[in-house]
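Sequence design from tokenized structure. All designs in this work follow the same two-part layout: the structure record, then the generated sequence. An example of the structure record is given first.
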């Protein structure tokens, strides 16, 4: 049966294995995420979360093996990288380092259309691109950063510029890799509020983290990853409990829920 666009998963991995440096970091990994769904992937360092991100970005590929496996994004197993980035926006610390250059905020967001850092003479900037850039900057409340060089921005400001670069394409989803790393309390709060705004607009949010409070209230599904496998996958209220998290991190864990956010005691 031919799948319709609405029934085609955003991401579908089945029996995927990835080896890095002679070590198996994903082992028969299977996961499906629907379009429009908000999912948090939680796990300790070394569990395979970063490898999952690199698979989505096509920086890594599964190991070929005799058993059936698949890795599909929006129903396709082959993508032009530039086209893929238009559909699946990636916000990661690697991209943060790449985009910390001496270009003003407006140009940094605008250059997302070209997959470059900054706008170059051979780029053709259309009025629609300029309109979309201003619209995204208003949404993210970063209009005041239009003229400020990225090298003079705080970590929180630069993170929002990076989100803006991903949003100019109207992607199907945003994938966040440890989004609050290096942010202070205020910047962390502001970033989570932005995630909530984006989630309410119907954009899929895939959040990869090891920090429970990053999981915004709009996320109802949590996937626990341990040693390259899915340890637990289900509704947040069932997964974010003491027993599953103690198993995940292999230490005694107590969980507190307050105003839709979860914390470890």
């Amino acid at each position: 049966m031919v799948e319709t666009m609405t029934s085609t998963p955003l991401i579908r991995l089945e029996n995927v294995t990835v080896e890095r440096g002679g070590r198996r970091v994903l082992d028969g990994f299977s996961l499906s995420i629907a379009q429009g769904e908000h999912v948090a992937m939680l796990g300790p360092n070394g569990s395979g979360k970063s490898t999952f991100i690199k698979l989505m970005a096509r920086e890594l590929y599964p190991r070929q093996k005799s058993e059936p496996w698949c890795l599909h994004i929006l129903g396709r197993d082959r993508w032009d990288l530039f086209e893929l980035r238009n559909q699946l926006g990636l916000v990661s610390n690697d991209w943060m380092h790449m985009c910390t250059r001496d270009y003003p905020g407006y140009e940094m967001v605008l250059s997302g259309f070209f997959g470059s850092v900054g706008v170059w003479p051979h780029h053709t900037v259309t009025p629609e691109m300029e309109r979309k850039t201003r619209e995204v900057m208003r949404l993210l409340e970063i209009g005041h950063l239009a003229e400020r060089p990225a090298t003079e921005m705080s970590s929180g400001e630069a993170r929002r510029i990076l989100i803006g670069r991903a949003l100019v394409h109207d992607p199907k989803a945003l994938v966040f890799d440890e989004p609050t790393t290096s942010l202070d309390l205020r910047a962390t709060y502001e970033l989570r509020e932005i995630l909530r705004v984006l989630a309410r607009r119907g954009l899929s949010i895939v959040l990869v983290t090891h920090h429970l409070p990053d999981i915004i209230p709009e996320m109802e599904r949590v996937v626990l990853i341990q040693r390259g496998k899915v340890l637990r996958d289900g509704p947040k209220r069932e997964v974010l409990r003491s027993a599953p998290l103690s198993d995940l991190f292999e230490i005694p864990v107590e969980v507190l829920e307050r105003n839709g956010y979860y914390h470890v005691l």
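Residues 18 and 261 are 33 Å apart (CA to CA). We note this feature because it recurs in several other targets discussed in the main text.
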